Amino acid sequence: MFRLTGVALGxxxxxxxxxxxAVELSSWLSRHAIALESVEPGRGGRDLSALAALIxxxxxxxxxxxxxxxxxxxxxxHRLFRYLVETxxxxxxxxxxSYAEGAAIDRYVQGGQGNPRALLAxxxxxxxxxxxxxxxxxxxxxxxxxxxxxxxxxxxxxxSGNGMALGLPILIRDFAERREDVGDLVAxxxxxxxxxxxxxxxxxxxxxRIAARIDAPAxxxxxxxxxxxxxxxxxxxQNYEYYFVDIVYEVRDRHMADNLVALVDDREGGANKVFFxxxxxxxxxxxxxxxxxxDEIDWRKVKPxxxxxxxxFGDDLFVIGSEFLSGDTLAPRRxxxxxxxxxxxxxxxxxxxxxLPAVLGAIESGSVIVPIRHPxxxxxxxxxxxxxxxxxxxxMPGEERSLVPTVLSDSYDALVVLKTISPSHPLx
Length: 428
What we know:
The chain is built from 17 helices and eleven strands. By secondary structure, it is α/β, with parallel strands linked by helices. It has a domain at about 165-245. Helix 8 (about 165-175) runs antiparallel to helix 11, helix 9 runs antiparallel to helix 10 and helix 10 (about 200-215) packs antiparallel against helix 11 (about 225-240).
């Protein structure tokens, strides 16, 4: 099923690292790789049943993306989520999205009014403004129409980004509509948006006072409404921490993990099996993704959400990364002032020799799911040492392939490898 091309054999004869890695990896794939039948939701199931056997009874499955704008990666993640919902009891979608934006989507998923296309078109993060995410949200709502109460799905944003900009105005509007005093909320919003934003003592005192007020019993607010208010305030407070760190990811990834842990431990949304949708950099257990920050910053102190989740859940967490060999993805184009001017298809440059896509490309394997851990066998060297892997996030790509050093065995339990990718489909 898997064989080396002439190119890989030639490299091995020359003792080039790429070829030797390809030989070892080819042997591993021939024994363990799961051929991917399809990426599209609802197609087949034999390949996913083999992946589900690896996942077992774990409560948290985190699935990454090597490119924020690739149709095939989004489609595969949707397909896997559907399969785990239907066969393994998963009910909660935890998304790399602000809590406020996720809550609006969840209301639609629960059968409420709204337009999912409009909800997603207004997202602060451009990767989610796509037909692929609309398809996911609409399927979740459709599933809930006939699901019993204890099997209903829920959608949650776990990212603290934009927590203040989105959450505080919602709270002010909610309080005002109920004729409740908005004084502290307005004072807090003015403070964190003004020149005295770093007055931490005053800001935290306002956060505490507002939280105590929300938490106090009130006849006009239900328990679920109170919980919603507290989550809006919690993510706003998390977002406020950004002012006081050198690297935003130091706290942002920790917040994602904390907010996801709450979904599992407190069973918010009525379930305790959670699917985490985010970029490879966030779901990974290993910090190597953040080496792009440069040597002048200690990237090693940035722990991805996956590292925090691993510390909390141990073997109850299963992490799946993604990689691709070639193709196109959506990517932002920025104006002179650094603002996103447009989102356009981008042709990914060829993979340089020695990189993970180059090593995988030397093996004729098609699209596969690659187990990275094994109870008795030693995994290939290419999986145990740093190797450059694709990482296309929200930033504008350069002329060279966007790669980051990745230790696969430290990062993931399995890797989805796609032979080619195409751009996700932006909403009109």
